[in-house]
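Appendix B, example 12.
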Amino acid sequence: MYEIKSKRWLSGAVTEMRVYAPRIAESALPGQFLIVRVDEEGERIPLTICDYDAEEGTVTIVTQNVGLSSQKINSLEVGDRFADVVGPLGRPTDLMELSDEQLRAERILFVAGGVGAAPVYPQVKWLHEHGVEADVIVGARNREMLIITDELRKVAGNLYLSTDDGSAGFHGNVYLCTDDGSEGFHGMVPALMEQLYDKGRYTRCVIIGPMIMMKFASLSTKKAGIPTVVSLNALMVDGTGMCGACRVTV
């Protein structure tokens, strides 16, 4: 159980793994997460369910090297097994509370920073399966840190590239943004968001990424009057909300 079926490096510090966990794969919904332990003595690590396949019985996780536990996860190879995988945990995206008719009336913008692309992907994919397209901004410090862009293009749209001289490629629904200008729009995410506001009115925005990015991206949507949901990844103990350690006061 919990065998790693495939592994690939998305960047120098981020891996994507497909893990055999059939019961979780059957029940998972976009926006949920799971908790893994590498071994019997391992720390319990919450990770987003980036994708799931009920037929294969697999769930996909994305892990960034941050500390010892995440490095242990990323050191595992195909054929290795996790000691524990618990899930699905958490509430699915609130977009699932809307009817298909209500969804088609929405114009949704997703903003993903760094590994935030992992939790954004299943939500955009779910919308695509319900005949709803969304605009997606994927931001990172540089080209090497952009992840899951090809997968997002398949479920959200094509690629738009902004260049220093003002020329651009073809317009689509996925927008890349890098701080150093090595790929796509040259600048911070909020500056690109404001450019998109001029092209059409968004009815809601979902922002997932580093705390400082979510702060300034939220200030941008607040100024534009766009209802917004962010992902506050608090430290967790049990992952169910029972102990209260992960609660955030607003």
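The chain has a mean pLDDT of 88. The two ends are 39 Å apart (CA to CA).
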